[in-house]
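Lay summary. Proteins are chains of building blocks that fold into shapes, and those shapes determine what they do. In this project we predict the shape from the chain. Here is one chain we studied, written as its sequence of building blocks.
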Amino acid sequence: MNAKLTLRLRKNIIERAKQYARNHKISLSKMIEIYLESITSTNKKETEITPLVESLSGVIELEQDFDYKKEYSNYLTEKYK
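And here is the predicted shape, written in a compact code that computers can read:
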């Protein structure tokens, strides 16, 4: 069953939303319905871990104090010397 809803929004947001909906060939009402459904859904899907990813889990053991940002920075410094 559909029901009517009145919203008060800034005019520029409405215009941008209409343009977005037009570009994606969907009605503004349907776009808002899909958005509201996605944020209020209680049936959240968990990300499925593929067998390949699961088989790689735990392959590499890092030191407790490993700083990946520092290591990546060092890598980039060496790469672009």
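What the prediction tells us: The radius of gyration is 23 Å.
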